[in-house]
Amino acid sequence: MKWAFAVPLALAMMLGMMLATPDLKELSRMQARFAKVDLAPDVTRLSDGDKQALIKLVQAARLIDDLFLQQYWSKNRETLASLRQDKSA
Questions:
Q1: Sign of the CA dihedral with 76 first, then 81, 87, and 89 last
Q2: Alpha-carbon distance 9 to 11, whole Å?
Q3: Ramachandran area for residue 34 (φ above 0: left; ψ -120 to 50: alpha; else beta)
Q4: Beta-carbon neighbour count of residue 66 at 10 Å?
Q5: What is the rounded distance in angstroms from the CA atom of residue 13 to the CA atom of residue 37?
Q6: Distance between CA atoms of residues 8 and 20, nearest Å
Q7: Cα dist from 56 to 2, 43, 51, 59, 60, whole Å
Q8: What is the rounded CA–CA span in Å between residue 89 and residue 85?
Q9: Rounded percentage of the chain residues whose pLDDT exceeds 70
Q10: Residue 76: how many CB atoms within 10 A of its CB?
Q11: What distance in Å separates the CA atoms of residue 26 and residue 28, rounded to the nearest whole number?
Q12: Is 69 exposed, middle or buried (0-12, 13-18, 19+ CB in 10 A)?
């Protein structure tokens, strides 16, 4: 009896998600709301030790990011490589 409610609910949710997927025109409109910003942190006030620690933190973050991508979905690395090669934007 539990399935009598679960299956139609799941189907309705999936249909709602498919209908809510934006097309290229909508995505372009959404993207236009944001401005590109170049981030350039000022590290001149950091001590030498802090600068070295920051380098290590960035290296660690890149490793963790790669691990997360691989664990979240096995095709993430392939998708990321494909996006990096895409010159359409």
A1: positive
A2: 5
A3: beta
A4: 13
A5: 36
A6: 18
A7: 52, 14, 9, 5, 6
A8: 11
A9: 91
A10: 14
A11: 5
A12: middle
Helix (H, G, I), strand (E, B) or coil at 86: coil
Q: Give CA–CA dist 66/73, Å, rounded.
A: 11
Taking the domains of the chain in order of start, what are their residue ranges?
2-85
* Torsion (CA) 70, 74, 75, 80 in degrees, nearest 10: 0
CA trace torsion 51, 53, 59, 64 (10° rounding):
-140
Phi first, then psi, for residue 40 (nearest 5°) are: -130, 95
Share of the chain above pLDDT 90, in %: 51
What is the per-residue pLDDT across 21-60, written as a single tens digit (0 to 9) for each? 788 998 899 999 998 899 999 999 999 999 999 999 999 9
Q: How many residues does the chain have?
A: 89
Position of tokens 């709602």?
A: 16
